[in-house]
């Protein structure tokens, strides 16, 4: 199951549609890391609203994804983590250290707008 | 005959398995007897019903109800009772017992009263059977064989129905108390406060977290102020849970500010080694709300002199 990656202005939006296998996740990570450079994106949003479970592999892959895109010049924000998922992740110690999160797609876009504007004005 | 006697004794003692307690209506041996019984009870309905109501008043049961109410309930219980004797189907009686309990529990009727009146009815009817068949001991024995298991089952059903209804009400109230004890309140657009008062046990902590996370989602909150001024102490488990709640909220994109930590709780947090970089704490609720407003970009300013209350 491939995850569609949409380009919206400066941002890439990967909206997960169904539960993903480990391989799908790795594929998503690599595809995003590659597209960030090719499409000159400034931000990446990964929407995980449909996931009702997040294991250690998934959260590690998402963390890697965030760090990889940052090194390639784009900020990543994970949006749509469900309340129950959030709490079980924390209990398992998977706190997505150093990764930005937001409530939903809209919040994620606002967050990226702020963050990229800040870095543009600074640079 | 000897066998039969033993069986009856067993049934009276209530030690038989439930399956054997009630012969289904129309059972070869007891069917005709039950039918005879039922027609006898129908024929003497008025008199037996009055006798029963009189005995209820005498025994000072159902004191919360008026005479007329007792008589009205007695009538419908009597009719239901006879019907169950006839058909052996307790479903209708179960429903009636639930319905009755719903009406009388709020008026303060106790379990012993309900059990008492049903046993009284059983007694009244049995006495009328004794009176009717006293000349024929054999027949009386067989009638009682048919009557008693059915009557026992009815008493059982009513009592269980009553107790279940009570338990249901208790559960409902517990649920209500639990809901009330942890309100998640919105004070500004995207700002929630969660005042916690009283002792937090692991169960309540868990529920609190669930409510908060759900509240963040439904109110689209960006900042949450958890005020624990009203919590005197918490153990390491609950403190840990609080930290986890803060982290989980972050995953939903909300910032948590904890206010009103007592010295004891502060000590607990330090002892369990919480990473204070992740915890946002402010002294009191006012400070917490001010900090939250700052994070949300609000600026609260005094626009004029405070309005004097009209005296």
Describe this entry's structure for a reader.
The complex is a heterodimer of chains A (123) and B (311). Chain A is α/β, with parallel strands linked by helices. Chain A has a single domain (5-117), classed as 2-Layer Sandwich (Transcription Regulator spoIIAA). Helices cover 49% and strands 18% of the residues of chain A. Chain A has helices spanning 22-38, 56-71, 83-91, 105-122, and strands spanning 5-8, 11-15, 43-47, 75-79, 100-102. Chain A has a five-stranded mixed β-sheet, with helices on both faces. Chain A is globular and about 35 Å long. The mean pLDDT of chain A is 90. Chain B is an alpha/beta fold. Helices cover 65% and strands 9% of the residues of chain B. Chain B is built from twelve helices and five strands. Chain B has helices at residues 2-13, 18-21, 31-43, 45-58, 67-87, 91-104, 111-133, 137-181, 202-219, 236-251, 263-271, 285-296; strands spanning 185-188, 191-197, 223-230, 255-259, 280-282. Chain B has a five-stranded mixed β-sheet, with helices on both faces. The N and C termini of chain B lie far apart (93 Å). Classes of the chains: A alpha/beta (123), B alpha/beta (311). At the A-B interface, α3 of A face α9 and α10 of B.
End-to-end distance of chain A: 39 Å
Most extensive interface = A-B, 18 and 18 residues
Bin the strand percentage of chain B.
5-15%
Architecture of chain A in CATH? 2-Layer Sandwich
Instruction: Tell me the radius of gyration of chain A.
Output: 14 Å
List keywords for this structure.
heterodimer, A: 123 residues, alpha/beta, Transcription Regulator spoIIAA, 5-stranded mixed β-sheet, 4 helices, globular, B: 311 residues, 12 helices, 5 strands
Tell me the layout of helices and strands.
The complex is a heterodimer of chains A (123) and B (311).
Chain A: E1 5-8, E2 11-15, H1 22-38, E3 43-47, H2 56-71, E4 75-79, H3 83-91, E5 100-102, H4 105-122
Parallel strand pairs in A: 2-3, 3-4, 4-5
Antiparallel strand pairs in A: 1-2
Helix pairs in contact in A: 1-2
Chain B: H1 2-13, H2 18-21, H3 31-43, H4 45-58, H5 67-87, H6 91-104, H7 111-133, H8 137-181, E1 185-188, E2 191-197, H9 202-219, E3 223-230, H10 236-251, E4 255-259, H11 263-271, E5 280-282, H12 285-296
Helix pairs in contact in B: 3-5, 3-8, 4-5, 4-7, 5-6, 6-8, 7-8, 9-10
């Amino acid at each position: 199951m491939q995850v569609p990656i949409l380009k919206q202005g400066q941002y890439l939006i990967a909206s997960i549609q169904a539960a993903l296998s480990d391989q799908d996740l790795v594929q998503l990570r690599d595809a995003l890391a590659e597209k960030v450079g090719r499409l000159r994106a400034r931000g990446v949003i990964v929407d995980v609203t449909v996931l009702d479970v997040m294991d250690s592999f998934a959260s590690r892959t998402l963390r890697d994804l965030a760090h990889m895109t940052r090194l390639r010049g784009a900020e990543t924000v994970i949006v749509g983590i469900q309340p129950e998922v959030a709490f079980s992740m924390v209990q398992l110690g998977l706190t997505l250290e150093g990764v930005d999160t937001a409530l939903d797609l809209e919040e994620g876009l606002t967050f990226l707008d702020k963050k990229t504007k800040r870095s543009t004005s600074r640079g | 005959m000897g066998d039969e006697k033993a069986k009856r004794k067993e049934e009276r003692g209530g030690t038989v398995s439930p399956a054997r307690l009630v012969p289904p209506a129309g059972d070869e041996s007891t069917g005709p007897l039950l039918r005879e019984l039922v027609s006898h009870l129908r024929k003497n309905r008025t008199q037996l019903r009055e006798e029963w109501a009189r005995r209820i008043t005498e025994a000072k049961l159902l004191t919360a109800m008026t005479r007329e109410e007792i008589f009205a309930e007695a009538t419908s219980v009597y009719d239901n009772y006879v019907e169950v004797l006839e058909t052996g189907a307790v479903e209708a009686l179960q429903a009636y017992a639930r319905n009755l309990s719903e009406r009388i529990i709020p008026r303060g009727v106790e379990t012993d009263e309900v059990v008492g009146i049903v046993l009284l009815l059983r007694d009244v009817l049995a006495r009328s059977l004794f009176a009717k068949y006293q000349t024929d001991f054999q027949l009386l024995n067989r009638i009682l064989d048919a009557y008693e298991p059915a009557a026992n089952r009815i008493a059982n059903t009513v009592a269980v129905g009553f107790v279940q209804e009570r338990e249901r009400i208790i559960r409902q109230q517990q649920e209500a108390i639990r809901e009330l004890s942890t309100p998640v309140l919105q004070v500004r657009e995207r700002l929630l406060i969660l005042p916690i008062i009283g002792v937090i046990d692991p169960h309540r902590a868990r529920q609190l977290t669930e409510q908060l996370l759900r509240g963040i989602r439904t109110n689209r909150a960006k900042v949450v102020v958890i005020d624990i001024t009203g919590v005197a102490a918490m153990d390491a488990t609950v403190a840990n849970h609080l930290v986890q709640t803060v982290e989980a909220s972050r995953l939903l994109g909300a910032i948590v500010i904890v206010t009103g930590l007592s010295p004891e709780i502060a000590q607990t947090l330090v002892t369990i080694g919480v990473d204070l970089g992740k915890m946002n704490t402010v002294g009191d609720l006012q400070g917490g709300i001010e900090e939250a407003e700052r994070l949300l970009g609000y600026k609260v300013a005094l626009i004029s002199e405070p309005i004097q209350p009209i005296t």
